[in-house]
UniProtKB/TrEMBL annotation, chains A, B:
<dbReference type="InterPro" id="IPR036412">
    <property type="entry name" value="HAD-like_sf"/>
</dbReference>
<dbReference type="Pfam" id="PF12710">
    <property type="entry name" value="HAD"/>
</dbReference>
<dbReference type="InterPro" id="IPR023214">
    <property type="entry name" value="HAD_sf"/>
</dbReference>
<keyword id="KW-0732">Signal</keyword>
<protein>
    <submittedName>
        <fullName>Haloacid dehalogenase-like hydrolase</fullName>
    </submittedName>
</protein>
<feature type="signal peptide">
    <location>
        <begin position="1"/>
        <end position="18"/>
    </location>
</feature>
Length: 323, 323
């Protein structure tokens, strides 16, 4: 028999409840987000949602961090090819790969999907997951964005980082559901967004289970096994999470199906689109963009009750890495 | 400014710490499990593991619940085929399917993989995930095991349910990684094991994202997209969890790669095999079994430091549903 005595007295002079979203201006967007969260977490509300169903999913490129002039992972791929070629020039076995290693993005993009897959295979396969992630981490340390001069993982959106934290504080489970690669994102997502590896869904390549120097190891193989984009997003969420999210955020038509499926569920739902309207602090693009093309979300989203976040108007600050 | 005053006094007469594994006999197996958990959760230990890395993965069939005379999901498949045929006899479009709907397991098994896939396609596709799961739930309510007379979800192993709870109490995240189907397992796993849908990895079929009566819906389609068995298990864990587990439990050679990969990581690791040795209370089978065949685990496991759990000797109770 043990006796336990616990006694505690807390006397705290607390400030008025802190603003959970300080980088959001006091506009309708912020109001709608806070009202939604307060409603679904209020046990007295008829729209109360039990914590286990508080699933929030977000795209990454263009939603949680920037995606111009091209997806950052593609820039990594080119840099990595150049690195690999330094050790073994024979990896540059085609004109496309030679152009890629020279940073000639235009040639790669003009080569279409075939060229992109060639670049991804050459830069993303042939090493263990651990070694690949070590290379990503090293790249993030040194690479700088051509326009902002910032490390890429400082080009995360401060308002969205605050939103993720706010949701977790309100017992939401936050997930990334991105067209980006899982092994790439997992290197920085926990530090940058507070989202652990097991809550990161994305595109993935083939893998081999094999021995490397006698140690059982997962090795990244050529070929893409699953593309986490468009209808692939709800399918992947169903497979991996097994619940229909009550909050979904994206920025492009690649996210349309995810928002559509999430907000079609019963009860309160929040669909959110980050609209890139800020040519001063970030970029302004939507319908005609080669990256993050947004047509359906603008045409149909508002009628479906989705919140279109106007970056220029609704955010007082953009990047985590720049005030 | 708000003032918050919180005062609490707890005076409790607590019993000596309760045994976390009451259905395990006081044998070496229990001792090894408890010692491992106490070591990795002790901040003063050199083998301390931070909570975020406390990942524990378990096979389901034969590890967390029984799997004789055949996988329970196959029995469900046959019953479901019979149900579907009542509404529309044309679903029984082959001799294999006719035999299956009559419960003629032998004909199905003799037909090999082709027959199995035919049965799975006919019984597991063509409906929404929601409707499929409603059917599974209804089946679990009424179906009874031919030998024990128990509902299938009462043939979970009480010692393993206790182990899962114990691990979660010690801040482990517990996962299922099974050859069984994700949509099937998720119907009962949270209630039976305390494992939520997002921590259930398994085999899955193709899915279509489509509209059903105007509502965006995931519909189960014919064809198997991923088989979560053998090398597929570590590959799936890497894709979905993104961490190498520190505890892995299984019962057959289909789990060998998962245990091998998990226990090959740095630091303390626990591999555990449930050895079916109990012909009195359950079944006794290993090397020659058509279900849950276990050869490599017995031959190589002990040398790799894996714990071979002797069901007859190490468990004081078997089923959750029977004392």
């Amino acid at each position: 028999m043990r006796h336990i005595l616990v006694s505690c007295t807390l006397l705290a002079a607390a400030p008025a409840l802190a603003d959970p979203l300080p980088s959001w201006n006091d506009t309708e967007a912020k109001n709608r987000i806070v009202t939604f969260v307060e409603t679904v977490t209020d046990p007295a509300s008829s729209d109360y949602v039990t914590p286990s169903e508080r699933i929030a999913v977000f795209d990454n490129d263009g939603t949680l961090w920037a995606e111009q002039p091209v997806y950052f992972q593609l820039i990594f791929a080119l840099d990595r090819l150049a690195d690999l070629a330094k050790e073994d020039p024979s990896v540059l076995s085609s004109d496309t790969l030679k152009a890629a290693a020279e940073g000639d993005l235009q040639t790669v993009v003009q080569g279409g999907e075939e060229a992109l897959i060639e670049v991804v295979n050459a830069s993303h396969s042939g090493s263990s997951v651990d070694d690949f992630q070590t290379a990503v981490a090293a790249w993030l340390e040194t690479a700088r964005h051509p326009d902002t001069g910032l490390p890429y993982d400082k080009m995360t959106y401060q308002p969205m980082v605050e939103l993720l934290r706010y949701l977790r504080d309100e017992q939401f489970k936050t997930y990334i559901v991105s067209g980006g690669g899982i092994h790439f994102m997992r290197v920085f997502a926990e530090r940058a967004y507070g989202i652990p590896p097991e809550q990161i869904l994305g595109t993935y390549g083939n893998s081999d289970y094999t021995e490397v120097e006698g140690v059982p190891t997962i090795v990244k193989a050529p070929g893409i096994a699953f593309v986490d984009d468009k209808a692939g997003k709800p399918v992947n969420i169903d497979r991996t999470i097994g619940k229909r999210p009550i909050i979904a955020g994206g920025n492009s038509d690649g996210d349309f199906a995810m928002l559509e499926w999430s907000t079609a569920g019963d009860g309160p739902r929040l669909g959110l689109i980050v609209h890139h309207t800020d040519a001063q602090r970030e970029w302004a693009y939507d319908r005609d963009s080669h990256v993050g093309r947004l047509v359906d979300g603008l045409d149909k989203g508002p009628d479906m009750g989705w919140l279109i976040v106007d970056m220029a108007k609704d955010w007082s600050r953009v990047y985590t890495g720049k005030q």
